[in-house]
Amino acid sequence: MPFQKVQPEKLSASVVKQIEQLILRGILSPGERLPAERELAERLGVSRPSLRDAIGEMQARGLLASKAGSGVFVADVLGSAFSPALIQLFATHDEAVFDYLSFRRDMEGLAAERAARFGSDYDLQVIQAIFDKMEAAGNPAVSEEAAQLDAQFHSAIMDASHNVIMLHMMRSMFDLLREGVFYNRRIMFQQHTTYEALLEQHRAINAALQARDPQAARTAVEAHLDYVKQALTDHQRAERNAEVAKQRLEHETGKG
């Protein structure tokens, strides 16, 4: 008969499995420091040698990294989805910006729909808390905190979609956005894209999520990113017009 004796699982294997799940689900983020060994062993209810075995295994697999005198950290498991050469192309060609926004529109619309349907009450509380902070932080054109909260709001929706592939892929994409690869968010906030309009769009997204209305949530996200795309289009057109006007001025003043 094809039966084998059941082997009891080592405590270190249970620790590995738990930390793996926290990383996979995006609860532990790249660069996040784990609690000190004594504290973590107590939280997990295991001996310190068992914990060391687990951490050693995860370090060998590249999931954790230790820094001398600082502790143990979640490794940069996301990395970059793109080569440096391709990132440079993204940064220098406008079509990449608009393809990026189209991709976000599709993915975040789906994520919002899933979040409204599958997100837990805790997920929605996190989204509500971030929105409340956004509202209090003011204009992202002049507040770095508000600009960061804007990104956190969108990331929280990804988290609430409960699709780990989507979560990690979009976190990698947001990292490029934060680095200004696709466009300068601060410049965009200073253009025709007004603070009140952006806040109202985020309010509509949050309201649809809190009401657990999947279609309304998706529609609100799509409308928001359509607005961002139009704002960037307007900004680029204004820059081109300003350059043409500058050339005309230089030509006219050069005549005299």
Report on the architecture of this protein.
With 256 residues, the protein is mainly alpha-helical. 71% of the residues lie in helices and 3% in strands. It has 11 helices and 2 strands, in the order αααββαααααααα. It has helices at residues 11-24, 37-44, 48-60, 84-92, 94-118, 121-137, 144-160, 164-178, 185-190, 195-210, 214-255; strands at 64-67, 71-74. A hairpin with a 3-residue loop joins β1 and β2 (71-74).
Judged by helices, strands and strand pairing, the structural class is mainly alpha
Give the count of helical stretches. 11
Order the strands across the largest sheet as they lie in space.
1-2
Main sheet specs:
2 strands, antiparallel
- Return Rg in Å: 23 Å
Quick one: how many beta strands? 2
Instruction: Summarize the helix and strand pattern as letters.
Output: HHHEEHHHHHHHH
Share in β-strands = under 5%
Mean pLDDT across every amino acid position: 86
What is the percent of helical residues? over 70%
Low-confidence stretches: none
Global outline: globular
How far apart lie the N and C ends? 101 Å
